[in-house]
Amino acid sequence: MAVRVRFAPSPTGYLHVGGARTALFNWLFARHHGGEFRLRIENTDTSREVAEAVDQIQGTLAWLGLDLDGEVTSQLDRMAHAQEVARRLVDEGHAYEDEGAIRFRMPDEGTTAWEDVVLGRIEYPNEQLEDLVLVRSDGRPTYNFVSPLEDALDGITHVIRGQDHVSNTPKQLRILEALGAEIPVYAHVPLLNGPDGRKLSKRHGAITVEDFRAQGYLPDALVNYLALLGWSYDDRTEIMTREELVERFTLDRVGASAATFDYQKLEWLNGVYLRGLAPDVYADALVTYLREQGYEWDEELVRRAAPLVQEKIAALGEFPAFAGFLFARVEPDPALLGDGAVLPAAAETLAGVEPFEADQIETALRGLAERLGLKPREAFQPIRLALTGSAVSPGLFESLELLGKEESLARIGGSGRGGASGSSAR
RNA sequence: GCCCCCAUCGACUAGCGGUCCAGGUCACAGCCCUUUCAAGGCUGUAGCGCGGGUUCGAAUCCCGCUGGGGGCACCA
């Protein structure tokens, strides 16, 4: 039987990284087996916010590169059918009416068990199973009824979801059984925690995939990182392409315990991916990112600046703070300003450099440092500060070249205070 | 309270009875390189929660404890 899985989020807003991880595992499993990956929206009303959330979720999945099969389905479309099935269950004695609602009759004795692919055998005492409401008194079916019903309707072969659904499983199993439906294979993947060991939430920082996108993370890096949370290939392979992940992903290597989301490791991985991009691809990514974030900076200059930062930043979001001085003057931190003694000499030296290119600039400035008896660091740091407004920046010589002689000299001035007063573009 | 699940360095994990005085990666520390910051190279600190079993032998199997998580809706 061909594999068919589904990701079934409730449309409450942007996709959470935990949800994205669940979606990823489903997608990897489907692609690994040449099966189908479907999106099913689990909702109960038709409000505008829901429609937006559905679009957002689809947009996020697309950005992550998790392509869908078949149409996106919605619980809404099956309400009438669910009601019919519920009535049939009443007729067959599996359910009964209760104050206008329809309740499913759960067994009172024995146990309900299943072989979970990641958790192993799980047994629930049936006395724990309450007669659950299938259809509310207002006619709307409930999640625990529609979810297994739709799994059956759609021919879902494997239900891969978060462990927060473990306790729903015995109830859904009982319903599927009463329906006479095929029982899918269940795989409950571990949940994600924040750095403090508690449920990952906004207080920990970025939480939705869109948050990470806005910070300049690459979809490939996020996908790679998420795959490593609860799953591993072996004892040493961590950096894998999408194709490698698809080829290597198996549910039996998914762990059973919760994983802590490590922002630092994600950042490191993103840096690895960023540095690994071909220069033109990197420039494209940077241009696209800055445009998405609303920066209206000269594209040509951004492209020329790209090589200066590729080795230095771990997320595209660091670019404005790191290289923003190329697009607008930045006032140096007064606390960092020295006496500026080398500045006049530097200005004089630079004025004579022709052509104004990194190599020539470097030769000239190193010569200056030697003549003044200064260590490179001592000579260059004041210039860097005057030029970039910061003690941390891209390479000094390349930065000078990009800024051009005129602007560079204007910033270095010679007064020791860097640039004409009020000239800072802010 | 009841039910279910989980438990290897700070974090992600490898380990499926002996090849583990526990390996890799991030983070952290030191050194090297160096125009700052990164990157890179080298080295290092750091872990099998506790107690009982089983076995010639346990991180690996069993039981208990402790700790953590999840769930107990006419929410999803």
| First-last Cα distance | 63 Å
Unreliable parts: 415-426
From the alpha-carbon coordinates, what is the Rg to the nearest angstrom? Answer: 30 Å
What is the structural class? alpha/beta
Mean pLDDT: 93
The percentage helix is 40-55%
Characterize the main sheet: 3 strands, parallel
Helix and strand run: EHEHEHEEEEEHEHEEHHHEHHHHHHHHH
Write the layout of secondary structure elements.
Elements: E1 4-7, H1 17-32, E2 36-41, H2 48-64, E3 73-74, H3 79-91, E4 95-98, E5 101-104, E6 111-116, E7 120-125, E8 133-135, H4 143-154, E9 158-162, H5 169-179, E10 185-189, E11 192-193, H6 209-214, H7 219-227, H8 242-248, E12 259-260, H9 263-276, H10 279-292, H11 299-309, H12 319-323, H13 343-351, H14 358-372, H15 376-388, H16 396-403, H17 405-412
Parallel strand pairs: 1-2, 2-3, 9-10, 11-12
Antiparallel strand pairs: 4-5, 5-8, 6-7
The structure holds one RNA strand of 76 nucleotides.
What does this structure look like?
- By secondary structure, this protein is α/β, with parallel strands linked by helices.
- The chain has 17 helices and 12 strands.
- The protein has helices spanning 17-32, 48-64, 79-91, 143-154, 169-179, 209-214, 219-227, 242-248, 263-276, 279-292, 299-309, 319-323, 343-351, 358-372, 376-388, 396-403, 405-412; strands at 4-7, 36-41, 73-74, 95-98, 101-104, 111-116, 120-125, 133-135, 158-162, 185-189, 192-193, 259-260.
- The strands form 5 sheets. It has a 3-stranded parallel β-sheet. A 3-stranded antiparallel β-sheet has the order 4-5-8.
- Helix 1 (17-32) links the parallel strand 1 (4-7) and strand 2.
- The longest helix is centred in the first third of the chain and has 17 residues, at 48-64.
- Mean pLDDT is 93; it is low at 415-426.
- The chain binds one RNA strand of 76 nucleotides through strand 5, strand 7, strand 8, helix 4 and strand 12.
